[in-house]
Amino acid sequence: MEKTLKHSEVRPFGMEDKETKEILEKFDDILAEHLAPGKVAATVAAMEPKERLMFLSKLLDYAVPRLKQTDIEADVGSDVITVIPPNFDRAARIKELKQKLFETDE
Predict the structure, then answer these.
(1) Rg (CA), the chain
(2) Is the dihedral of CA 76, 81, 85, 88 positive or negative?
């Protein structure tokens, strides 16, 4: 029966993993070869407009952060618009603000 080695018995903590380092270096070489600025520009220019648009829109996912969708309610019945965030407990908020107000006055 073989003994199972713990991670600390195989490689000391903080020491780089040689295989991972080699894989990352090879991956960097592949990216440098295929994503050279001139080569990418030529490839994009050779694409059909529809393909080019799809390519650029997919790249935007990595360049522009996505906004989280938020639902809000608004009371627009008067000159003042009141925006009410979801899960808003008005009574609890008023109580919290009153406590803060009275704590600072003392």
Answers:
(1) 29
(2) negative
Instruction: Please give the Cα distance from 103 to 29 (Å, whole number).
Output: 63
Q: How far apart are CA 100 and CA 64, in angstroms?
A: 40
CA separation (Å) from 4 to 1, 7, 17, 40, 41? Answer: 9, 10, 19, 47, 51
**Position 82: which residue type?**
T
Eight-class DSSP state of 13: T
Task: Please give the C-alpha separations between residue 29 and each of 20, 22, 56, in angstroms, as whole numbers.
Answer: 14, 11, 23
Dihedral sign for Cα atoms in the order 9, 14, 16, 20:
positive
Are 44 and 59 a contacting pair, CB within 8 Å? Answer: no
Alpha carbon distance, N-terminus to C-terminus of the chain? 74
pLDDT confidence bin for 1, thresholds 50/70/90: low
Q: Could you tell me the pTM of the whole model? A: 0.37
